[in-house]
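Memo to structure team: turn this sequence into structure tokens by end of day. - J.P.
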Amino acid sequence: MINQVREKMNSSKIDTLWITDTHSIDFLTKYHCEAGERFIGLCITQQEVILVLNHLFEYDGISEVQVVYYYDFEDVHELISKHTVGKVGVDKFMSTQFSLPLSKSFDLVIGSDCVDRLRAIKNENEIQKMVAASKLNDYVMSLVPSLLKEGVSEKEVAVKIQKLFFDNGADALSFQIIVAFGANCADPHAVPSDRKLKKDESIIIDMGCKLNGYCSDMTRTFFLNKNPIKEIYDIVLLANQEAIKAIKPGCKFSDIDKVARMIIEKAGYGVHFNHRLGHGIGKEVHEPYDVSMSNDVLIEPGMCFSIEPGIYVKNQFGVRIEDLVYVNQDGVAVLFNEYTKEDEVIK
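Reply from structure team:
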């Protein structure tokens, strides 16, 4: 893996690469450490791999890494400079308190892509872990309709979903569960509140779990008693389905976003689709690369990402349908999620 990073450094003419994102350090070294405010950085050159780590933490990752420990009273900036040569790539997570002093002596560029592209392409073992996480997500989602009764609050449903995840073996949540009723569905990142469910309302459930270190993520929109916005739901469903059909190696992520966006725009709701179409996923729920109008990265086999078009009309309603997909070695987009996304009305 380190040699693949070095190849990408070569093509970008980067002599030293500093990685400070703990998930990327874990990906490359099999060592995970949340160092808090203390600096942790993996330094890669063509000759060596060094992990700069506070002595309060003990390294137990791969043997190829040389660990340089420092104490709180030492000048970590000096230590970083000591192991830096030539043109320097820093990842997008490196704190300015460390990157700015480095920039006074070295030519800095963003070097995240040297690792991001490797993380974006999952191997078969990673895919199987994500399939397992999504199967658990499917199962818990299948139990959600039984929780949706008139008078229940968003918070109550969110708490029950969380319990279902942990009762069925989840290691953690991928993110804070989103439960939104009625007009609250118009906020794509709604936080569960005390608002109670009424008849004839839409219900957005956006949820995911972590299992064996990998994330799942899925959104479904339900309705209680009847669906008063079926036309809107069908537009979002069509955008979801057609975008998934368009996925293939060599396509740009921006092309996939365009497929879904044009369907929603043609229906007259373009202004109400106010976010990107999707995001990469793996060890973290949001990973490179995003499925957006501005991302021209080419899709490759092994990439995993979400497809989640939505329509949100402020103070009225919202609909979102989200699936996870991966591109297999035959170049086919395969759904992680199996739970139905047909119009589901709870009686």
